[in-house]
Amino acid sequence: MAYDVLKLKIKDKKLNYQKLAKELRISESGLNKKINGKNYFTQSEIYQLKELLELSNNELIEIFF
C-alpha cells in the first residue's frame, strides 16, 4: 500500500485526521493506525475515501492494492 500517496491526497484536500475520521465514522486513533499501515481499511472505508478524496481508479489501485 502507498500510504505516502494517501497522506498527500488528504493534505491536498485540506482535510485533517479529525475531519476524515468523522466522515469515515471511526476514531482518530483508528484512522491513524490505518493510515500508518498497522490496520487495514474496510471495503466501505476505501469507497468513502475514493469519493471524499476524489481518487481516480488508478490512484485507488496504487494506494490500496
UniProtKB/TrEMBL annotation:
MF (Gene Ontology): DNA binding
Pfam families reported for this sequence: DUF739
Stated name of the protein: HTH cro/C1-type domain-containing protein
